[in-house]
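Hey, does this match?
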Amino acid sequence: MSAPLSETNLQKIRALLASKNKIGAIQFYRTCTGAELAESKDAIEKIEGNTQAVDLPADKLNEINQCLLSGNKIAAIKIYRSACHTELKDSKEAVDRLERELRMAYPEKFSEKSGCVSVLIAMVFLADLAFYWIA
């Protein structure tokens, strides 16, 4: 398992990719994260595939990132649409790419949702406990 990338290092990787230096980006990724070659190559290819076509102003990108980190994807899409003047479908796809990139760079900042099954199990447990207590 490799260490997460800082935003600064992610920007350096994007710059290396923009200058057509994929090997340099892979080497830099390995240096930053301690990942093996195959893992580094896969990660760089994901980053390369997720680079955004439209340049966002830094303040808007930060706003979108904050929305994504707080679980408000709809607000992030609205911000992207207004900043880039794109269609809804294109904005959603771009925000999805940004979210994947953000999850890859900062996996610890995204909590896994427990889902309905956990709630159902808790409710059954509480009902069983209440039944046992009453009887």
